[in-house]
């Protein structure tokens, strides 16, 4: 769009250094506390190690997600595409205050749980994915990011939506999450319904979700043995979902 200037000007062109534009495109980050590393014994006896993802792991993560997004089953395709964009948005600084938690067993990337912080009161769940189907790994990953939002960040509300039937059952039903009035409230993932948890719901029982659904609590006292077993990050060799 062009319009003639309403007054005489000394120059017809104004140039910008891209470093001057970037602050307008990149959301200024909040000072978020880090996720404390954790471990949990799954129902099948394996020990899952959960930590924050690292930027240097992004290329390997994106490479694996390219394979996942081609799986036309259980909504892996659409979730895979969206997760790819969320990871890339984090790396390119085009998503506001994201957090990405990876679940590892002996260094193998088997779970992802991510989200972002809208403001001091509301954190938004984006996606939970698992790349192995044993031990209720997905339950542990979703719980971890819910714990981060409500227990570490102390947000007042945690907003989710669900694209798959398994995800809806795992977190929407089994955490007894109510929904906001729709369409007045819409989740940013496609305008779907907003399921939510409040601090009151969290503290009245949801905080014990892992003990109820997995049979063991999440521990933030990670052993040296578990940490050493997961010091080298690697993606699965195959996509068997």
Shape: globular
Sheet of most strands: 7 strands, mixed
Radius of gyration, whole Å: 20 Å
Helical fraction: 25-40%
- SS elements, strand count: 7
Helix count?
8
Distance between the termini: 49 Å
How is the CATH topology named?
Answer: Aminopeptidase
| Major beta sheet, strand line-up | 1-2-3-4-5-6-7
Order of helices and strands: HEEHHEEEHEHEHHH
**Architecture, according to CATH?**
3-Layer(aba) Sandwich
Which stretches are poorly predicted, pLDDT < 50 over at least 5 residues?
Answer: none
Total domain modules: 1
* CATH superfamily placement: Gcn5-related N-acetyltransferase (GNAT)
The CATH class assignment is Alpha Beta
Strand content: 15-25%
Q: Averaged pLDDT, please? A: 96
The secondary-structure class comes to alpha+beta
């Amino acid at each position: 769009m062009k319009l003639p200037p309403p007054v005489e000007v000394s120059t017809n062109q104004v140039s910008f250094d891209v470093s001057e534009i970037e602050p307008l495109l990149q959301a200024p980050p909040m000072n978020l506390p880090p996720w404390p590393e954790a471990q949990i014994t799954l129902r099948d006896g394996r020990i899952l190690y959960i930590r924050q993802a690292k930027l240097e792991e992004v290329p390997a993560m994106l490479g694996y997600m390219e394979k996942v997004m081609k799986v036309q089953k259980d909504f892996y395709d659409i979730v895979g595409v969206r997760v790819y964009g969320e990871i890339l948005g984090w790396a390119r600084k085009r998503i506001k205050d994201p957090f990405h938690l990876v679940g590892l067993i002996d260094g193998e990337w088997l779970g992802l749980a991510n989200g972002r912080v809208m403001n001091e009161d509301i954190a938004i769940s984006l996606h939970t994915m698992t790349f192995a189907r044993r031990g209720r790994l997905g339950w542990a990953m979703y719980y971890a990011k819910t714990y981060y939002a409500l227990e570490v960040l102390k947000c007042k509300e945690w907003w989710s939506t669900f694209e798959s039937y398994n995800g809806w059952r795992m977190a929407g039903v089994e955490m007894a999450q109510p929904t906001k009035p729709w369409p007045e409230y819409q989740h940013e993932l496609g305008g779907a319904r907003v399921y939510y948890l409040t601090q009151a719901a969290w503290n009245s029982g949801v905080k014990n979700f892992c003990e109820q659904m997995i049979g063991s609590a999440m521990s933030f006292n990670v052993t040296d043995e578990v940490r050493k077993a997961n010091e080298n990050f690697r993606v699965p060799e195959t996509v068997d979902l």
